[in-house]
Amino acid sequence: MLTVHHLNNSRSQRVLWLLEELGTPYEIRHYQRDSKTMLAPAELRAVHPLGKSPVITDGGLTIAETGAIVEYIIELYGQGRLLPPPASPEALRYRYWLHFAEGSAMPPLVMTLLFGEIPKRAPALVRPIARMIGKTVQDSYLGPMIDAQLDLMESELSHSTYFAGAELTGADIMMSFPVEAAATRNGLGNRPRLAAWLAALHARPAYQAALKKGGPYAYAA
Ligand SMILES: N[C@@H](CCC(=O)N[C@@H](CS)C(=O)NCC(=O)O)C(=O)O
Fold first, then answer.
1. Mutate to test the pocket of ligand 1, among 30, 39, 53, 102 (most ligand atoms within 8 A of CB)
2. Mutation test of ligand 1: which of 5, 6, 31, 52 has the most ligand atoms closer than 8 Å to its C-beta?
3. What pLDDT score does 107 carry?
4. What is the pTM of this model?
């Protein structure tokens, strides 16, 4: 049976949601973050050398990287669901947004988190300087980049309800995590289509079923 190696409060929530949408049987092996460092426990490295979540095991296969996992599950178990028709304009949008989520949207959000942590962990003497550097990077680089990306998403959703057409696809499942992260940290600003899209995802029974199985999730509304 397909096993999801699920780290609490993490990206692997999307994999649980995808499996719930498809009704694919799976089991969950739970891993808990260290409460101080928030890192995954060492036992996850026995599953995959990087020790990050999500990882799935299926038969003899071990697959890491959320995007690769989402593509694998949809191809193998989707029977054409959560995927636009091949060679359609939506298929290209699907590919773009599926990769955009981890390739472009997550890096500035993770960097924002890290720059926010540095002053908290710095010795008291240099804390004001660390805070000033963090603010400069945020104001001049990360903040504008996140804003431009959110604008692009808002504009994409003027073409259709979902990122790759009128129906939910794997691209929306991938995009949920960065949009939830952005919404939790700084809000979505005046971007009503993006807010409505997120609300529609949260209302889905499969999303809610996955939340119950995955445990508390800080990014969920
Ligand atoms: N791009 C990777 C990122 C994986 C990743 O960083 N996962 C986080 C969870 S959200 C993690 O395992 N963090 C714990 C750690 O780094 O020890 C993916 O999408 O799978």
1. 53
2. 52
3. 97
4. 0.96
Calculate the alpha carbon distances from 194 to 64, 93, 108, 163 in Å.
28, 16, 18, 10
| Ligand 1 contacts CB of residue 126 (under 6 A) | no
Q: Cα-atom radius of gyration of the chain, to the nearest Å?
A: 18
* Other Cβ atoms within 10 Å of 128 Cβ, number: 11
Q: Which residue is associated with the tokens 């073409």?
A: 159
Convert the pLDDT of each residue in 137-152 to its tens digit: 999 999 999 999 999 9
Backbone angles phi, psi at 71, to 5 degrees: -65, -45
Measured CA angle at 11 (ends 41, 33), to 5 deg: 25
Q: Is the pLDDT of residue 219 over 80?
A: no
